[in-house]
Amino acid sequence: MFNINDKLTLSLINARDVYGNDIPFQLKLPLSDEELVLPDNLSSIDVFEYHEGVITGGRVIFSIYIGEMTTINKLIDELDRNKVKIIKDIKISSIDSPVCIQNFGDKKIVFASIKEQDIVIEDLKQLRNVIERLSDHFSVVNNAVSKIKTFGNSMNKIKKDSF
Q1: What is the C-alpha to C-alpha distance for residues 96 and 113, in angstroms, rounded to an integer?
Q2: What letter would DSSP give residue 42?
Q3: What pLDDT digit, counting tens, does each position of 98-145 carry?
Q4: Do residues 131 and 36 make contact, with C-beta atoms less than 8 angstroms apart?
Q5: For a tag site, which of 51, 55, 134, 146 has the least CB within 10 Å?
Q6: Helix extents (H) in the chain
């Protein structure tokens, strides 16, 4: 991260709707001055960190979900009345583990298992706010890393100027 040629990027990838279908959308942070346009049917997006340097690689560091956080335990009465649909391939570790749902009429769709670092928000307006804040924080990190990368050069300049 701090070597002069290292690169660190943060991107929003793997945009999906409530049924797990891919949505063609990705965004590199920090944001540019362009208007942030988000797909209407967006239900989840992953935040991906990529580091290029001595060790190169990337990983999803957390996900952002649009919906409501609850547990299967809290949905049991509605499950009995067929008012809840659980999307296939979701790994739910226990009935008390957090899941994300969206309401569609009188049905609730459970579409994601929530991990500790994940974020659950209510709507696209809040998502826009979260993305802007994340972008601002990443800009601060990038600026600080740039200062550390050039710190040695600036210290050497001070030493030369003091002679």
Answers
A1: 11
A2: -
A3: 999 999 888 999 999 999 999 999 999 999 999 999 999 999 998 888
A4: yes
A5: 55
A6: 76-80, 124-149, 151-161
